[in-house]
Amino acid sequence: MTTDGSSNPDVVLVGGGIMSATLSALLGVVAPDWTVAVFESADQVAGESSDAWNNAGTGHSALCELNYTPAAPDGHVDTAKAVGINEQFQVSRQFWSHLVRSGLTDSPKRFITSVPHVSFVTGEAGRQYMRTRYDALATEPLFAEMEHTDDRDVLASWVPLMMAGRPAGEVAAATRSLAGTDVNFGALTRLLLDTAVSRGVELHTSTRVRKVRRESDGRWAVTVRSGSGRSRTVRTRFLFVGAGGGALPLLQGSGIPEIRGFGGFPVSGQFLRTRSPELVGQHQAKVYGQAKVGAPPMSVPHLDLRLIDGEQALLFGPYAGFSPKFLKAGSMWDLPKSVRSGNLGSMLGAGIANIPLTKYLVGQVLQSTSARFRALEEFVPTAEQDDWELITAGQRVQVIKQDPTTGRGVLQFGTELIVGAEGSIAGLLGASPGASTATSAMLTLLERCFPERMDTWRPLLQEAIPSYGHKLSQDPALMAEVRADTTKTLELQG
């Protein structure tokens, strides 16, 4: 698959975030001779959800996120989602390790650092859940090194900032994994795209994709407009729309039937942040708690250590907000324009089914400063308001889709890969776990869009990602080998 460069690249990637950057890197492994063009509407890449301050940067590996290990009414804890997400994060680690060995950066700490991941609960019911969850995860090889305690002295050594000032009789329990990380996805995206440009990928910033249309020969005509207002059309055999919240309207405009029934519900996030060296020094971990009863998964409270461009800070949240924009730099008309005849039923159905979510969001928007601070005090009893500032993080667009069994619209909190037109176009919708599983998402894209090439590509991918085609959770020996290699290459803790 070769064309004549900038006007007719083999591949066009829409959006300069972690997804396009990851796909570009994978194509550099399996198809280095293909011509690739990336179009980003902002004046720099990684400015939306991939930006370090616009995401929690957890390196979502399900080591601490309790919403990935739900408890059934009988108390049984389901670990399937946690294991699956951890598997996907290990794939990302392996690919990043391969790229580092190939010269991505001389210092992996520019984008990934070891940070303990802790789950923390209070109350007797919370303690029982935490014990059951730990027992269930302890049988899984990917979680074998996890620790558990309900001893207050041990807890004080793990999370001193959270235990200071806590009532003496309060029951608390936690698990901790030293395999956790903090990932600066903004820095990683820039490294990936810088490397891509060095091998010939064309990167166009301040260039917005206005329209995509399939031509009679099967190629995609992509109309773009630069910041100066000049429009032009490039033609490509394969188009990936990885523009975050901006992906939905472009896919709708493409005319592919696979997007019919899909909608999006935008949610903005806010966090309380402190840069106080004293407070940061007392909280060298990422700690996730439990969502309030009836609250959506997006509301799980967490107090995260962030390491961004040499600076350490703590983020607490999230506090949900609402804006009809699909991107932070989007339009107030994004949501209304996304409602069409093909997804109106899904949107209405999801709205009716998620009235509690609507009430939650209204409550969050109307929440007072003191109410926000009380939520922080549940995590940090000694918190003082002057030490914290409220910041607005990224804009997320949750996926609305039709349930294939009922035909009703449902709101989901994961990601969705849309593939159409015989695999010549693909797009990614949704949010969490998002960036942490970008490599797995883009591998799935390659498999679905280029099945006829996988026999040739598979050995190349297995060289870059040793576990490709295997499950580490079912192969402890391979898991130990992979973990040791990525830990050493990425300069993480052993």
Automatic annotation (TrEMBL):
<dbReference type="InterPro" id="IPR036188">
    <property type="entry name" value="FAD/NAD-bd_sf"/>
</dbReference>
<dbReference type="InterPro" id="IPR006231">
    <property type="entry name" value="MQO"/>
</dbReference>
<keyword id="KW-0274">FAD</keyword>
<dbReference type="GO" id="GO:0006099">
    <property type="term" value="P:tricarboxylic acid cycle"/>
</dbReference>
<comment type="pathway">
    <text>Carbohydrate metabolism; tricarboxylic acid cycle; oxaloacetate from (S)-malate (quinone route): step 1/1.</text>
</comment>
<dbReference type="Pfam" id="PF06039">
    <property type="entry name" value="Mqo"/>
</dbReference>
<keyword id="KW-0560">Oxidoreductase</keyword>
<dbReference type="GO" id="GO:0047545">
    <property type="term" value="F:(S)-2-hydroxyglutarate dehydrogenase activity"/>
</dbReference>
<comment type="similarity">
    <text>Belongs to the MQO family.</text>
</comment>
<dbReference type="GO" id="GO:0008924">
    <property type="term" value="F:L-malate dehydrogenase (quinone) activity"/>
</dbReference>
<keyword id="KW-0816">Tricarboxylic acid cycle</keyword>
<protein>
    <recommendedName>
        <fullName>Probable malate:quinone oxidoreductase</fullName>
        <ecNumber>1.1.5.4</ecNumber>
    </recommendedName>
</protein>
<keyword id="KW-0285">Flavoprotein</keyword>
